[in-house]
Design goal:
The complex is a heterodimer of chains A (316) and B (670).
Chain A (H helix, E strand, L loop, with lengths): L1 H25 L4 H6 L6 H11 L5 H13 L13 H36 L4 H15 L2 H15 L23 H27 L2 H8 L4 H13 L3 H13 L3 H7 L4 H10 L3 H29 L1 H8 L2
Helix pairs in contact in A: 1-14, 5-6, 5-8, 5-11, 6-8, 7-8, 7-12, 8-10, 8-11, 9-10, 11-14, 12-13, 13-14, 14-15
Chain B lengths: L6 E11 L5 E12 L4 E5 L6 H7 L8 E10 L2 E2 L5 H7 L4 E4 L3 H4 L6 H12 L7 H11 L5 H4 L9 H13 L5 E5 L7 H18 L2 E5 L3 H7 L2 E6 L2 E7 H6 L4 H8 L38 H5 L5 E2 L5 E2 L7 H7 L15 E10 L6 H6 L9 E9 L3 E5 L6 H9 L6 E6 L3 E2 L9 H6 E4 L3 H4 L6 H13 L3 H14 L16 H14 L4 E5 L7 H18 L2 E6 L2 H7 L2 E6 L2 E7 H4 L6 H9 L38 H5 L4 E5 L2 E4 L8
Parallel strand pairs in B: 3-8, 3-9, 6-7, 7-8, 15-20, 15-21, 18-19, 19-20
Antiparallel strand pairs in B: 1-2, 1-4, 4-5, 9-10, 10-12, 11-12, 13-14, 13-16, 16-17, 21-22, 22-24, 23-24
Classes of the chains: A mainly alpha (316), B alpha/beta (670).
Chain lengths: 316, 670
Amino acid sequence: MLIRRVLLGGVTVCIVSLIIFAGVEMLPGDACTQFLGEYQADEELLAQCRKDLDLNRPPIDRFAEWTQGAITGDLGLAADGTTKISTIVGDRLKNSLLLAFLAMAVGIPLALFLGVVSGLWRDRLPDIIASTLAIFAMTIPEFVSATLLILVLSVWLGWLPGIVLTSAAAPASEFFPEILLPMIVLSFVMCAHIMRMVRSSVIDVMASDYVQMATLKGVPYWQMVFRHALPNALLPAINVVALTIAWLLGGVVVIEVVFNYPGLGRLMIDSISDRNLPVVQSIALIVASVYVCVNLAADLLTMIANPKLRTMYMRK
Amino acid sequence: MPQSSFIDIKNLSVGYTSRNGKIIPVLRDVNLSITRGDSIGLVGESGSGKSTLALAAMGYFKRGLHVISGQVQFDGIDMLNIERNALQRLRGGRLALIPQNSGQSLTPNLRIGQQISEALRLHGDLPATSFDVGVIDLLSQVRLPDPVGLTDRYPHELSGGQQQRVAIAMALASNPEALLLDEPTTGLDVTTQAHIMELLRDLAKDRNLAMLYVSHDLGAIARVCNKVMVMYAGETVLTGSAKQVLLSPRHPYAHGLLVSIPRLNEASLPQALDGRPPMPSETITGCAFADRCKLADQTCHKSPPPLNHLETGEAVRCFHHDQIGQLNQKTEKSARSNPTAADKGTALSLANLAVSYSQPGLLSKLFAPQDTPPSTVDRITIDIKKGETLGLVGESGSGKSTILKTIAGMVPAQSGNIILNQAERLDMMVEKRPAAHLRQVQIIFQNPDDSLNPRHTVAQVLAQPLRLYYGLSGTPLRDRSIDILEQVRLGEHYLERLPSQLSGGEKQRVAIARAFAADPEIILCDEVTSALDVSVQAAVLDLLDVLKRQDGTTYIFVSHDLAVVKAISDRVAVLYQGRICEIGPVAAVYSAPFHPYTDALLGAVLEPDPDVAPRLTADDVVELSPPKTGCPFQRRCPRKLGSICETDIPTAQEIAPGHVIHCHIPQLDL
């Protein structure tokens, strides 16, 4: 079962990489037309350039080579033919991870807490406040809430810098405190999604027969909540959390652009407009792998945490 | 009174506040008192307020419900104004609940041992070190096999009967003085139910418990209760001793309930109780039951009857309780349609049908090709005549629903043939069958809540088969729909309703109407009355019978309820682990000689008569798969001969024409 899931994940990544490669191949123009300027370049120069960059070989060969490189961590050279992709992408990936982990560290515990609180105090003041905030967080576009926060926290109050000026290659520590505002916006948005999910799950479980039974068995309220209700209510949250994490790691383009944060998402946008196709390819591959891994981890965790699934695979 | 009452509910009214701010009562001025050693059965249709009353005894009300007036006392303690800590000590302590549907009442993420030791920790006086011993002791008290191994199991790994026993063990952990039972055997197999009832009976007697037993199953009530209270629309309508209420009920509603139960010793269809109980939100001016009552007159509609206390000790809420005798004369038993005498040929033949759910993976196919598990269903050979009703009975896991699904093409057959009308083979799965075959075989499912699309109106539900098979549209479609609705005794005004606006019985009628709309040859009925109240069940059975008489349809009727099958079927096949044990005309199967399994099933049926005790021959162990060789029933059979039962498939002994028993025991000894 587990092996099957891992293999399936691998197959998914392979298919995705094939699609990415094919898609990029099909686009009109290549690195050389971009490099030499689309209209001015004469045929001779183009041919020379293609020879230099090894673009004349059949696509299948190049795909095989690219895949081989990608597996060993060598993503090849960027379109300019000199910079190593792994260096550019590596820095940006590090930055994206930093932002994502910070947002998760704040957002997930907060979301679980608020979800449980509003589920338990359903339709009462804590729930109404938390749910209303969540709806705002989900419906207001990120760039609006980001701009609002910049306006309030950095322009009016001057507490936090409103924009990131550190260069992409700088070590993690230099991003403080500039990283705080994008982190706040991100955790706000992700927190809302997870919280809504946890809330409805808690409400379902609190209405279940086994919670009623525990109450009528004389289990004190908080013991009932922690022993009987929450372990079951939080199970479905695992998958939502996983999706949110994948979304965070896949680069949050809008936020990165608004705050000028040097993450993967912005690199992707920049590379697309520069026709730096090898970089686009690599980022797409990384994002796909992250999705597959995170979902795999979530399924695994659900399997371990859910006695029904656990016993199905272990007792046989 | 010799003893003061232990649980005392006085003038209790409970209700909820509707959206427009009105208070809607679900319990109206109910009195109930239980002394130690008493066990009271609480009876009524769904929605009568019986569960609400039982939970009120623990001072518990479901979300949204609140007390309007009245008192609830437990051993002199006011349960409605009690401090939270004290209430927690009482609940599950001196006063324990055995819930409906234990499968959902046990917390899924905690092991059985953890849940029971929690009860010991909260209420027992055992030191923490001896919890493990205590748990095992409790599990053996409720006669669960392998109690030590069970403590490590999760609830979903247990069968329904085992879960129910665990729930009982949990309730006993605190040595309670009073037990509340909320439909504790609903959904269990007959043999399991009978065993659990015997266990409860013994417990109540040994420990001098006060018991309140909520159930719609009068057979179960008859077995464990010495007093019965009948509720209708949130009111008490009749109280008395179990014998008084069950043998000579003084209230027309109780009378109606009792005659609507199909019984093993009667060959006729039970009599339906027409109509439905009023919704809590309806205003009732007179007697709540008047609209459905055959004795009702002007006075009944004008003013509500008081609860009359009779000299015999009963209490009746009826103006005409002295005229109940007339009900027996007024109502003649509706005779069931005779099995069609003329032989019109075979409607459906099952020839050596086998079904297997296991799909061996590639690895096991390569390395251990012989190691395939035995088929779920095997050696099923039955010819069903046109216009005949064939009943399939057996416990859960007997393969009866699987056979229906295979005929319907929802499960592929492993081998064997299904032949319709002696000519057409129904081997394909449903999506590949031609429309003509699809039309001829229709299925009605157990739960209309699941089988009717909640967003389709009745008109849309009926339009589907009519459009698909007959290409009807516009006015002809509407006319035909109304026609069919009237056949199932629902009128034109039902066309625009959604399933949520129908009662359980009405929904099942719509499901029946949908099946009949195709004008099929064969209708497969899968536990069609199991989700319904007894009174509604009788009406649905009657409807099925009338429709069959009109259209000459053939039914295959699956049920775990032996009395229901007896009431509706012409011929019965008794199944165990997917194999036929016994098949024959209804009268022959339900009388000696028996297959040992038929005998065990029939013996376990609880009759709504306090004087009849069940005979328990086989134990109620749940087997997950049939044995590889020999007789399917070998492991539970109380009359097992020896190794022959384990090795050889029993021969078919033809006891009488058409009556076949598959058993090694010689015919004369059966």
